[in-house]
Amino acid sequence: MKYRMLGDSLKVSALGLGCMPMAGVGNNMYGVASEAESIATIHRAIDLGVTLFDTAEIYGPHLNEQLVGKAISGRRDGLVIATKFGFRFDESGFRGVDSSPGNIRRACEGSLRRLGIETIDLYYQHRVDPSVPIEDTVGAMAELVKEGKVRHLGLSEAGPETIRRAAAVHPIAALQSEYSLWERDVEEEILPLCRSLGIGFVPYSPLGRGFLTGQIKARSDLPEDDYRLNDPRYSEENFGQNLKMVDAVKAIAGRHGVSPAQVALAWLLAQGDDVVPIPGSKRRATLEDSMAAVDVTLDREDLAALDAAAPRGGTSGPRYGERMMAMVRI
Fold it and tell me: Which of these is catalytic: 3, 30, 59, 227?
């Protein structure tokens, strides 16, 4: 494994592990997950030198953090555990965003308990709450740093002005946002801003929710209850058009003798030493394939071909439906 810096002092593996697919997300959002295999996957990741593990309170809610806590028990040393707060929910379901200071403290205490740790290494605001000034939110997060409950602060899917205002209150180690060959909008303003402020960048969905792996050749390859059947980019009108970029990824993978997933991740790693993707996995086989991307080097010809096949704005369809799009870049 290779290592990178988020912000000025948080050292992490060049690829982290997104734990979201493992437990408690929708109705088997990415297919059925086995707890035993998920835990074995986390253990294998640790053996491979992965240090960054990403979860969130809302995944479940709570179930994903509980699983991660169980998996890292006895193996906590040297790991960077990242989790997120920012939603309100009860027994009847999701109730909206909530980044009020009181909810932040409640969420933090619960996450620490479920994860079985004394300090959260990287604590993200999951989505910006328009009703709470970001200064108040980051101020409350900074109090948790002072108390030793949190080490570093992060934001997720925040807009440029929010990022600027947040960084003026307390150092922000990382911004987590969607970034991949099929979602490059952050390159226009968000990524340059992060670099100017010394904020690391953590791409989620770096494989386009599985699309860039080349393993999904038709919508019929997805289970009937797979949420991606409602993803605009997986829709009947967009699916075929988006396969064209996968063809380019496959061609480069063939030249290098690697998997398409490794090419997609290697492309992200080539975008800068401050970029730390977190591919999701719930099985050891896919984990091992993804982590091998740190040893894949793309040349200028490869990068040019990928840029031509997957230009910024070139993917067919929005990355989310209207409800979720309304919650990003605030």
Answer: 59
